[in-house]
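quick one before i forget lol
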Amino acid sequence: MEHRKDIRKVNPLDFPYDLYQRYHLATQIIQRLDGVFGNGAPILEVGGNPGILQTFLPEKTPIIVNSPPHIAGDIIPADGCHLPFKDRSFRGVVMLDVLEHVPEDNRSALLREIDRVSSSWLVVGGPFGNESVGEAEAILAGFHRQLTGTAHTYLEEHQRFGLPDYAITLETLKSLGYATMEIPNGLLCRWMLMLGINFFLQKDPSDPELVRQVNHFVNLHLAPTDNREPAYRHVIVAVRQPMPEGLRQQLRALESTDSGIPDDAVSSWEGATAALQALMAGKIRQRDEKIRDLEGQIKILEEFRDQVQQSLAYRIYRRWKDMWKRG
């Protein structure tokens, strides 16, 4: 219970970028769904972290289930394929970045089970298998291993189970009687860079306030414009047919436009990376015994940035920007 109290004191903008962007979008979606379908029964989140969705939606008090060892706070221990609830117990179910952590053979059963307990809607988001996302995860996994000497637990699990197939996921939801639409989430080249910077900062955990400040700045200024292609994840909104046209328009409006986006988002992040490098260099000069190690980390960070710029996701982004300018 204490964990829940602590996390509820956290400003959502201070959450890690990858968490904030998915929960911020999910919150906006839920608010629009509640405007159409009402909010009588509770919300269920499957596979969630303790307290995060409650922090974004404190007045809605969603119920969270997860399987061991991911049990903390008020999380109910349960297998997502065998939920301990009656049919239609919840007005809707949220499941973010979960399918990729489930063996492929169990994914359809998981979708059918969350359908069983939902009365109106599902919000299912996460990375789906395609060349750009696969390359982005491989770059990040290699960067993490080079920086820390260890594998990244979640990225390693993605590779072991394989990313979900979007077409199969959509087909399963439609077979259950849902009308669907998707919203992109997490501009892929930014997602790679920001997670890499986060890995870099977490390598030296002596300054959590710096990590918080970086997260806060990025979430405040960049995350709201990240709902666009090429995206790391896609959030599928599924409602029992038919989907009201007004709701569809409200959800479509959540997609980011190019208005107010820097001409070259990655160049702007190069500037942010350089600033972090300078800051870290200032810190290491105060600790002579760590100079060699941390300067080596900065070199690794620079190499990671170069990999991002050479990635397919960045090339797609630049082509999209050039087409938008000509249009």
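fyi Confidence is low (pLDDT under 50) at residues 1-5, 259-269, 283-288.
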